[in-house]
Design brief:
With about 450 residues, the protein is α+β, with helices and mostly antiparallel strands. It folds into three domains: about 1-90, Uridine Diphospho-n-acetylenolpyruvylglucosamine Reductase, domain 2, CATH 3.30.43; about 95-205, Uridine Diphospho-n-acetylenolpyruvylglucosamine Reductase, domain 3; about 210-415, Vanillyl-alcohol Oxidase, Chain A, domain 3, CATH 3.40.462.20. Helices cover about 25% and strands about 25% of the residues. The chain has helices at about 25-30, 50-65, 115-120, 135-140, 150-155, 180-185, 225-235, 280-290, 300-305, 330-340, 360, 390-405, 425-430, 430-445; strands at about 1-5, 10-15, 15-20, 45, 65-70, 85-90, 95-100, 105-110, 125, 160-165, 170-175, 195-205, 205, 210-220, 240-250, 265-270, 295-300, 320-325, 350-355, 375-385. A seven-stranded antiparallel β-sheet has the order 17-14-16-15-19-20-18. A five-stranded antiparallel β-sheet has the order 7-8-12-10-11. The protein is globular, with a radius of gyration of 22 Å. It starts with a strand and ends in a 16-residue tail after the last helix. It binds flavin-adenine dinucleotide. Flavin-adenine dinucleotide binds near residues 79, 90, 109, 192 and 196.
């Protein structure tokens, strides 16, 4: 039992733990993935139960203090923390319960994808999840959720069956197709705007435990030709083939040929979730048309594929991100992309090309709040560097890349990959009609915009 003080307001009987500035665990608790973010909440309320979350929301709103929600702390904008705010820390809500017969999982609002994948894979089941295992289920799923399985299973939010939500009024409700369907619609892509999800119920599918996965690596010199070949290959590839293309800098690892270590290369991450013995045949046309310099693809645990990118995404680096959707990538666009992406300002920077299609496009366009399902490619410009002194050059280089690619972009944007780029870009993420509908739903569930530290949707006037 902890009484807590924030500013001049006081709350007694908060059932969780409260951390104040100066307390030993405070600095560690306020840190987020993006090392550029250094914010000092008035208090961090560590919640273990839904009742704790109810108490935290009631405290913040009663005291008139701003409120943030900390899921996995991976938002590049650092929206999990704000100066002087009450940080509702969900990391203690990490329960996970798989129901193999119903093929569903109940996941706490502060669970990570590594934890969820580990639990569901014990039963040979999975749902589309984040590509880096430390990412929070909460922020990723509410922003729709893109992952290697999406062409087979749809976004994470396409598999949301129900959510337990603490509203801005501090009330616990359920959102599902049958209960509060407007809220349920908005939660599937609308981000953290509508309440705090304390429990997600997600549909599971048979996947693994072995999939045919790994990475192909190509030298930067032939990258444009490889990208064209891959683009054409993915246009007719089976849905079970999840494959993202990544401009990266080759790590100094034994498996990398010595001459390319430390140099820009093109990687193709592969996650074939069909019958594992059919994976090699599915990939064969790509390997024949564009033979890789290094082939590291084999039967491996799905959980290993889900952690392939972990080493390339260390916590605490400086991060500046942007992204855009593309209906197609014509040859000219590929030349521009390759020209810039193979000359990154930092060896940690990654430019990822995610192919859409498959199950993503089979979900009715209006079924969820998610914006654009029609675009064929989702480009993620992920600027990452170690030294804050290099920020200006790195930010300029990501902005230059985005500007150069703009002529071919659809104008819509994937909100999970978007940094702080202003309200118009958030609206672009949904398109005008869905944005207007979301504003009306926001007016019902959060009329005073308590949940404003996010990709914000202001309530309709
Ligand atoms: C290394 C890395 C890899 C990534 N990979 C992918 C990827 O493969 N696919 C993809 O789609 N995105 C990816 N992302 C983006 C990621 O999905 C978003 O940044 C997401 O917001 C992170 O969620 P979080 O809970 O970790 O973050 P947080 O910073 O804790 O939360 C971000 C916001 O989400 C909301 N939120 C979080 N949890 C809850 C909850 N339980 N209830 C209500 N609101 C909540 C809050 O508004 C909060 O401000 C990645 C990000 C990183 C840093």
């Amino acid at each position: 039992m902890t009484g807590l003080m924030a500013g001049t307001a006081a709350i007694e009987n908060f059932p969780g733990t409260a951390l104040h500035p100066g307390e030993p665990a405070y600095d560690q608790a306020r840190a987020v993935f993006n090392g550029m973010i250094d914010r000092r909440p008035a208090v961090i309320l560590r919640c273990m139960t839904t009742d704790d979350v109810v108490a935290a929301v009631q405290y913040a709103t009663g005291a008139g203090l701003p409120l943030t929600v900390y899921g996995g702390g991976h938002s590049v904008t650092g929206s999990a923390v704000a100066d002087g705010a009450v940080c509702v820390d969900l990391r203690g809500l990490s329960g996970v319960a798989v129901d193999p017969s119903a093929r569903s999982v109940q996941a706490g609002g502060g669970l990570t994808w590594g934890e969820l994948d580990a639990a569901t894979q014990e039963h040979g089941l999975a749902v589309t999840g984040g590509r880096v295992s430390s990412t929070g289920v909460g922020g990723l799923a509410l922003g729709s959720g893109s992952g290697w399985l999406e062409r087979a299973l749809g976004f994470t939010c396409d598999n949301l069956l129900a959510a337990e939500v603490v509203t801005a009024a501090g009330v616990r409700v359920t959102a599902s197709a049958g209960e509060n369907p407007d809220l349920f619609w908005a939660l599937r892509g609308g981000g953290g705007n509508f309440g705090i999800v304390t429990r997600f119920t997600l549909r599971l599918h048979p996947v693994g435990p072995l999939v045919y996965g790994g990475m192909l690596m190509y030298p930067a010199a032939g990258a444009a030709e490889v990208l064209r070949t891959w683009r054409d290959f993915m246009a007719t590839a089976p849905d079970a083939l999840g494959a993202g293309l990544a401009f990266i800098t080759a790590p100094p690892a034994d498996f990398v040929p010595e001459p390319v270590r430390g140099h820009p290369v093109l990687g193709v991450v592969v996650c074939w979730s069909g019958p594992v013995e059919e994976g090699a045949d599915a990939l064969a046309p790509l390997l024949a048309a564009a033979p890789p310099a290094v082939t590291m693809v084999q039967p491996m645990p799905y959980t290993a594929v889900q952690q392939l990118l972990d080493p390339a995404n260390p916590h605490g680096m400086q991060n500046y991100w942007s992204g855009d959707f593309f209906q197609t990538l014509p040859d000219e666009a590929i030349d521009v992309l390759v020209g810039l992406a193979t000359q990154p300002a930092s060896p940690l920077t990654q430019v990822i090309v995610v192919p859409s299609g498959g199950a993503l496009g089979r979900v009715d366009a209006d079924a969820t709040a998610f914006g654009d399902r029609g675009a064929q490619f989702n480009l993620h410009y992920l600027g990452m560097w170690a030294d804050p002194a290099d920020s200006a050059a790195n930010i300029a280089s990501i902005q230059a890349l985005r500007t150069a690619m703009k002529p071919w972009a659809t104008g819509q944007v994937y909100l999970n990959f978007l940094g702080d780029e202003g309200q118009a870009r958030i609206e672009d993420g949904f398109g005008p009609q869905k944005y207007a509908r979301l504003r009306e739903i926001k007016k019902v569930w959060d009329p005073t915009n308590v949940f404003c530290h996010n990709q914000n949707i202001p309530p309709a006037p």
